[in-house]
Amino acid sequence: MNLRRSRGATATPTRQSSEDAPVPTPAGPAALVPPGCLHQQVSAALATWQLDGAEALLRQVDGVQSAAGGRAGAPLSSLARAWADTLRAELLVRRLRLSGWSLVGEPLVEGGPEQAGSLDLHQDGEPAVSDEAPVDRADRSQAAAHVAEAIALVRAARAAFDAQDDDVHRAAGLARHARIQLLSRRVDQAMDEAVESASLLDPPLPASPLAVHALSSLASVLADLELMPLALQYQRRAAETAAELAAGTADPAPAALAGEAATRLAALTAEVGEGLLDDGDPDAAGYFAEARELAVRALAQLPEGDPVLLDAQAVHGWALVGLGEHDAAVPLLRGVVGTATSVQDGALLASAELGLGRALRRSGDPRAADDHLATALTLATEHGLPRLRWAALRELCTLHAELDDAARALPYLQAYLADELDRVDERRTRWVGLFGRRKSLLENERAALQLRRQVYEDPLTHLPNRRFAETRLDGLLSTGSAPALAVVDVDHFKSINDAAGHPGGDAVLRAIGQLLVDGCRDTDEVCRWAGDEFVILLPDTTAEQAERALERIRRSISAHDWSALGVDVPVTISVGIASAARGDDRRTLFAAADGVLYDAKRAGRDRVVRLSAVTQTRAEEPAGPVAPEAAAAVSRVDGVTSSPRDADPDRGGVDPADDAGGFAALLVEPPVQPARARDPLDELFGAPPAAEPRRTEEPRVERPRAPEAAPEQPAAVAPPQVAPVTGTPVTREPALPTGPDVIWATGRSTDQVLALVREARREHPDHPAVVVRASAETLVALASEHDAYTTIDAAAMAAAVGPVPEALGRVGVLCASSGDTPIAAEAAFVARVTGTDVVRVDDVGGNRIGPLLADRSLLTDVDCLVVVAGLDAALASVVSGLTEVPVVAVPTSAASAGSFGGFGALLTMLNSAAPGVVVSNIDNGWSAGVFAARIARRTARR
Question: Where are the alpha helices (DSSP H) in 279-325?
């Protein structure tokens, strides 16, 4: 059964002339948006082919002058315009079909031109008409004009729907466009639209009438696409959503909506049951029982006089016929037939006649059934209801076969087979299209894979490259995980290249890459960083765990038989490991791991050194053998020991160990701190932690002037004695600031500002770092580096990097003149990122104070006022006399030449006797914004 009617619509027979069309009732543009009453009326008129009535309704709302000189309607919103374009496009397509023009793949409509051309509704460019047969040029021109208009309307509507933020509206529009595609016999495109609509409706949706409408529309399209299981799924969701709306309310509208949705679901369920019954499937009874239960529920929910009541009665009759309760079904369906005939509802009449014919045939009255089934066939053909037509043809074939009337059965059988062949052709075309799209998708996947390999794969080792490592590490850090990072460097790789040649060096790099992969877990990522350097990302791994794993790998590489590759020199690696701490970004984490890598290289290479995960200092005992002279050379400056990259011989630099003074001469030993006396309170509170060293991106090595003659080095140097550390280290969090940190960009380069922001974010990740007086280049660089974590105000030349507190209280910022605007913008921005709502009023100095006097809420509905003034410095005193709200006065240097760089405004404000005014220093919007925000937040907490 097809439920074609919508709530509030009255249907009449198809092919209705303009004289017989119903007179449209006035309605606003909002009613055109589903599930508005006007949308329902137009939809009902289109579904029952009342094209003149639908056009009259659309003309009135669309603001187009009617033929009788009607008055223009109100302008439409973008959403109402999208729905008007969609409905008008459907109207044009239906007119083309009704006038006999054959769209792509569409048989000629009975009564149309005998040799009509073929129009492609959705082709690109100008509409084309095939020249297979001569047709009237005027008809061809008019039809082509209609197609062109329909194309433009569909495209405009689709663009408007795509621009909507509401996914439910977009899904409803896509479902309607799929209906237009079906009318155009473009099944593949209809399926594409339906799939996109379904993707928008698949997430859980808040219960709303629009959601019910969108789900029901999609279910109707899926049913016409012969995807009945999916149609049932979405209509069931529509019924559940409508029931949720109706639960717990006395409003009759949600109950009526729930009844309509249940009726639609019952109709689909009964239709599925009929198909199973014809095939002899025993599961049919279950579907009919569900349909009866749904119909009974709908009849209880629908109010008296609701037009959907007849649909629910017809579905109830269908369910009774399927369950074999013919005696109860026949009088019920006769009543529906009589009422549908009186109200001239052709679609409902076709459904009721088909159900009554079935009931009479199965109850043993074939002669009476013949008349009703023939009427159902005629109505279904006229109304363009293919599923009802197929069901009526099948019933008539079965009826006359039971009567042994082959002559009567044959025409129905031929028509049924012809329809089935058309359906088979449609399925074949559909599967060919799906196959083509699947093939294209696979080709795109292969191309994307090839492109990904080119972008993220190192061509020599076939490992992920540096770009992949950076992207992956950023992703891990952004999710809040704490990965470990290992930087691996091949020792003396230049000598390996010299001994084995570049091909041999390449073979060594490939072999090392494979050994690294073999020694890691599946979740770890081994990447080639550059040259002879690799990095390993170890998600959710501590530095200690990574150290043990890399030590095993180091031993396996050292013990590997490299002679097979023609390499006679030893091949070893040095490894530096660091684990991410809170606030770390990719650059700081890599700098930390790279720094300890150089510790390993200075300590004699072929070893693993890690950075402690607790104190972020070097591990006291590096893994691997340590030569005595190397151990003597290891020292720490501020807890970090490393060297510039140009000091590494493997990277083209000079090995400091080969200098005249030896490696130890290049480092400065930190002074030994005297041991602290044991405090008795330590037993209770624990020993205080040692000062935490700072971790820098470019660690420093102090290189003294080389001596004139290198003294002879002793054979062995005893390592420095380190006093043992007692007690458990305690990490002491720095005191959090009461407001965001400020970074003045004036006089600093973009790189310097970025470095200061990174340091502030590491130290205080829970507070934003605010940059003021920044250039446009600096603002862009901040947004690029920190992406969604950055709040920018170009007018204030300021940015906040990090989480902005929830707004408490309200601050008002008054600006005297346009010259004071930058400082006012700065104060407003800082107050906002400090955690308050801000209202700002510009240009209120001198005689322009009128807005404040007209709207006193600007002065009273705030918790603190900031008055920014230069030439009009007296504005602060005037404002303080108009309100009891505390005022922060900010003098600016934007005034006349005689203001002495803002000192004139400052003295005016300081010499004012007005109470409740505090004065900031000149051009300091930052401090004024923070001070005002603190007052507002404290006031709001009370």
Answer: 284-301, 308-322
